[in-house]
């Protein structure tokens, strides 16, 4: 399958502090990666590199075949779907208008810009996939966090990106909201078999069943990377979080808990 992302021996230093150290990663079309690690492990920093938002201090990053440092980052960014929970429209836009701003890669609709009929049709289709059809006229400030998250995923998918980056998309969601998001992500993956995704989270319970690969980060260093069957084990994830963990996978979903000392031990 075609390579969508390649990072080789990437280091990031900010204010004299090493935030990422020697991280390498290759993501191919159709793969769905989880980036896991404790608070401060460097997940969001790595995602910003993969989304062409920042340059590495050392090492190389290729996004959609273009090497960072050799191409216009803004042009490249427009071709990557990035779901950033910090996204904040300045005015009370309707859901459908937020979704359409994915085409102009702007926070607010551009003056005098009008979508073509097929673009409106695509926005409608994506809103349906993400369970937003009833909310298409609702205004951003009235949406719940989960509804905002799903709106931002639809927005990110408008320009038909080959790569979708998701930074902790389930943060702050209640159980129905989280399950709806996970269901929508899996449906999306089925509908777009060539789409590659990278999802950052601390919580294995939030991983969609379609997750194929994982990268574990600890203190900016890669601990393990590869197919989920190899990487998502109690021993490896336990080392990543510095805890003795028991990890189970049932019906495609993961659960994790701290291992209790054996009775009498
Ligand atoms: N511009 C910066 N200057 C200095 N330190 C920074 C900068 N940006 C991030 N850091 C530090 O780098 C480390 C990694 O940050 P990052 O946000 O990538 O981690 P994370 O794994 O996404 O964490 P979290 O799970 O808490 O969101 C943190 O200790 C953070 O404080």
Automatic annotation (TrEMBL):
**Which Gene3D superfamilies does its entry note?**
P-loop containing nucleotide triphosphate hydrolases
Q: Name one GO molecular function term.
A: ATP hydrolysis activity
| Positions of the ABC transporter domain | 5-244
Native organism is Streptomyces cyaneogriseus subsp. noncyanogenus
Top-level lineage group? Bacteria
Keyword ATP-binding set for record: yes
What protein name applies here? ABC transporter ATPase
Alphabetical keyword list: ATP-binding, Nucleotide-binding
Pfam families linked: ABC_tran
Q: Specify whether ATP-binding is a keyword of the entry.
A: yes
